[in-house]
Amino acid sequence: xxxxxVLVGVTGGIAAYKACELVRLLxxxxxxxxxxxxxxxxxxxxxxxxFALARxxxxxxxxxxxxxxxxxxxxxxxxxxxxxxxHGLADNLVTEAALAHRGPVLAAPAMNPRMWAHPATRxxxxxxxxxxxxxxxxxxxxxxxxxxxxxxxAEPEEIxxxxxxxxxxxxxxxxxxxxxxxxxxxxxxxxxxxxxxRSSGRMGVALAEEARKRGADVxxxxxxxxxxxxxxxxxxxxxxxxxxxxxxxxxxxxxxVLMAAAVADYRPRNELQDKRAKDGDVWQxxxxxxxxxxxxxxxxxxxGQVLVGFAADHGxxxxxxxxxxxxxxxxxxVVFNDVSRGDIGFDAPENEVVxxxxxxxxxxxxxxxxxxxxxxxxxxxxxxxxxx
Length: 388
Ligand SMILES: Cc1cc2nc3c(=O)[nH]c(=O)nc-3n(C[C@H](O)[C@H](O)[C@H](O)COP(=O)(O)O)c2cc1C
Prior knowledge:
The protein is α/β, with parallel strands linked by helices. It has helices at about 15-30, 45-55, 65, 80-85, 95-100, 115, 120-130, 155-165, 200-215, 240-250, 295-300, 315-330, 370-385; strands at about 5-10, 30-35, 70-75, 105-110, 135, 140, 150, 175-185, 185-190, 195, 215-225, 235, 255-260, 265-270, 285-290, 305-315, 335-340, 350-355, 360-370.
C-alpha cells in the first residue's frame, strides 16, 4: 500500500464545516480521500467543497472506493447516523460504506448534549464500540447551538491524529529531513538514445512513503520512475547521474539519506547533439566514470547523518562485496539485494534483502517492497536514535 485510501463520511450536523479541515489535513499529508456526503450534510456544506478539497472531480463515482478503502472516518457523526450504523441500515453513501468496508472505522460524534446523553444514543455508541468502531470525542464545550455540555465534535487535528494511528502511521521521524533517491539514471548517447538500467524506482518510492508515514519531511530524487511517486512529499526529477549528483549535493544536510536509485557508474564521454544516423558503421562509444555519490556523501557527512546505501549484486560473492562497500564508502547500512534471482529485486513488486550494519547483519525474508521498506527505515531510525 503506497497511499492510504480514506473514506471521509460527513453527516448532517453543524460541525460539517470542520470536516473540511479534516479533509485538507488528510490530503496534505498524502492520503487519497474520497468524500461521502449524506443528503442532510449537503444542507450545511456542499459536496462540491469536499471534492475540491480532496482534489477530485465533483462527479467522481464513489462506489468503486467503498470496498477498497483502508479507513472509513465519519466526522461529524450525527445521532441519526450512529443509530443507523448500530442497526446496519444502508440508505445513503455513508451507511452503505460502513457495511461494505472491512478496515478500521472511526466516528467523531457531534450533537447537542441532550441527544448525546439520551439512552438510545448511549446504547448505539456502546454497540458500535463493542463492534470495534473507534469513537473519538465528543468533547465538552459550547455546541453549535449555544448549549454547554458534552457533544462538541473532537477537533479536526485530533481526528486526523487518530486516523494516522489507525493507519499504522507514527511520528517517529517527525522533524527529521529524509532524502531518498529512486529509479535508474539514463545517460544520453545522442538526442534520442541513452544507456540505462532496469530499476523501476519501486523500492525508493516505498522508502519515501514509509518515511512520510512516520512524519518525516521527505524529498525524493526521482530518476525515470516507472511508478508514481507518493503524495505529500517533495519530488525532484533527476534523470541523469549528473542531475542526481547536483540534487544530492543540494540536499546533503538531510538527517537520513536512503540511496536506493541505480545511478550509472559510467556515462558516454561525448553526447551527440542530434540523432546519430544509421549508416551501417560501427559506433564506438567511450564511457567515462561518473562521480561516486555514495562515496562523496560518506566522506563529507556531518551532524550525525545516517547514510544508507544499496548494493545490487550476485550471490554470496556479491554479498561479500557489499560488506566491503559499506566500509570503504563510509556508509552506516548497506541493503544487499541479490539480482541473480529473477523473482525479486529489479522491477519486481517483491524483494528479499540483507541489511549489513557495522554491528550486525539482518536478513529480511521475501516480502512486498513496502514491508521491506518498513524494515529498512526501522533500522535507520534505530541508528538515528543511537546518534542522538
Ligand atoms: C441546524 C441543524 C443542526 C443540526 N445539528 C445536528 C448535530 O449537530 N448533530 C446531530 O446529530 N444532528 C443534528 N441535526 C439533525 C440532523 O441533521 C438530522 O438528524 C438528519 O436526519 C441527519 O441525517 P444524516 O445523519 O443522514 O446526515 C441538525 C439539524 C439542523 C436543522
